[in-house]
Design a protein that fits this description.
7 helices; 177 residues; elongated; two-stranded antiparallel sheet; single chain; alpha/beta
Length: 177
Amino acid sequence: PDIATSMNKAHGMIAHAEDLLYPGKRPAAQVGVLFPCSSFVWDTVSVPGELQPLENMTEHASDYHAEVLGQYITLAIHANIQVDMLDEEMVLEPENLAPLKLLVITQPNVPESAMRAVGAWVREGGTLLTTSGAATADRLNDTSRLLRNLTGIVEKPRPRLNINVSLSCAALASGSA
């Protein structure tokens, strides 16, 4: 009965503040993370042009995907910075990039149209944070030099790192990791 009384009082207070709360809008995030999309299909390629047969795709994670999660946890949870996840289509709309001060890209495959939009945003003053291997290929896994031309950073090619999640979890559980 005491909980119900307290909840009734709290709900009444919220109801009285509804006119103040309802028009409120979430402030625009100043940090965005490009959520990997095009890269997923190429994660199982070990020999150019050949896909590895995988019984369960959910048992595998990629280094760049783990990095997205790490960046999000660091920024949103530990630093309490509002972060928006953007997909490859969202960055094509300038109004989605305009409020951002920082955009994080980790995925190796970024469509050329998306990278051109990001490049225009950077030239207008946006800050881009990339990880090793980011935006080195386009949607079809052909080499892309758009990021290199934008930043002037030349990176040595490196293999995509895939992590077998079930084996990694088993190793952690056994203490052998």
